[in-house]
Write a structure and sequence with these properties.
The chain is of the alpha+beta class. The chain has 4 helices and 6 strands; from the N terminus they run ααβββαβαββ.
């Protein structure tokens, strides 16, 4: 779990100083990540036995699969790993009967909004972290297409 924890921290480091409040990735520990992996569907891409990309998926009510902690090693970004994880998440969603995917991204990270839009996600809501009087996150959703 330490290698996965390190991957997430490396991948989320670019957010430091850009988003407020800070990323919840900072609250993760290898132990809490292990518990998360046991409670959710963890998708991991490894290279030479080391994780280079990951995504955690959690079924929600109303047939939605929540996607969280999408992380791609900074040296491997732009090589299709994030998209490969999204395709795997869609396959997972279909296999467990989910009809949509949902994720949240920070309002400041407009480059992420563009990437998720290119992957078929649409803005579907917004939220505020406790104690904030402004939008801090946007929600994006995507309908899962049938495999036929």
């Amino acid at each position: 779990m330490q290698a996965l924890h390190d991957l997430i921290l490396r991948a989320f480091a670019f957010m430091d100083g850009r988003i407020d409040p800070p990323s919840s990735a900072h609250a993760l520990t290898p132990a809490s990540l292990r518990a998360k992996a046991e409670a959710e569907h963890g998708l991991v891409i490894e290279e030479d036995g080391r994780p280079v990309a990951c995504l955690f998926c959690r079924p929600e009510e109303k047939g939605t699969l929540y996607l969280g902690k999408l992380a791609v090693d900074p040296g491997r970004q732009g090589q299709g790993l994030g998209h490969a994880l999204l395709v795997a998440a869609e396959d997972l969603a279909r296999s467990i009967g989910c009809i949509s995917l949902r994720l949240e991204t920070r309002v400041e990270l407009i480059e992420n909004h563009r990437v998720f839009s290119c992957w078929g996600f649409v803005r579907s809501g917004e939220s505020r972290h406790p104690g904030f009087d402004r939008t801090t996150s946007i929600e994006m959703t995507k309908t899962v297409k049938s495999s036929t």
